[in-house]
Amino acid sequence: MGLEVFSKIIEGFVNVFNGIQGIGSIFVITGLTILIIIGVGMGLYYFIKLIKQLPNLTVREFIKYTVLFATILIIVGIILP
What's the predicted TM-score (pTM) here? Predict the structure, then answer.
């Protein structure tokens, strides 16, 4: 099931890129790609910082981060389907 979903996602990207014509569209796609890479990098950086801080958290802070993480997962789960 996981590979089928991945295959559908790749097909969707290919269909979007088939209609691209002109240098302006290429610049837009390149810019969006750069922004996505920066966003993913920042997300990983802060995620690693959080993992390093976990042993030093109080119980209250740990519960706050757990609730925040659960909320983020719920939002992502709503957006993805």
Answer: 0.54
Greatest Cα pair distance, the chain, in angstroms, is 55
Each as own residue / partner, the long-range contacts of residues 34-42 (CB below 8 Å, 24 or more positions apart, any chain) are: none
pLDDT tens for the chain, residues 1 to 81: 567 777 777 777 777 667 777 788 788 888 988 999 999 999 999 989 988 888 888 999 889 989 998 999 999 888 887
Question: How far apart (Å, rounded) are the C-alpha atoms in residues 41 and 23?
Answer: 27
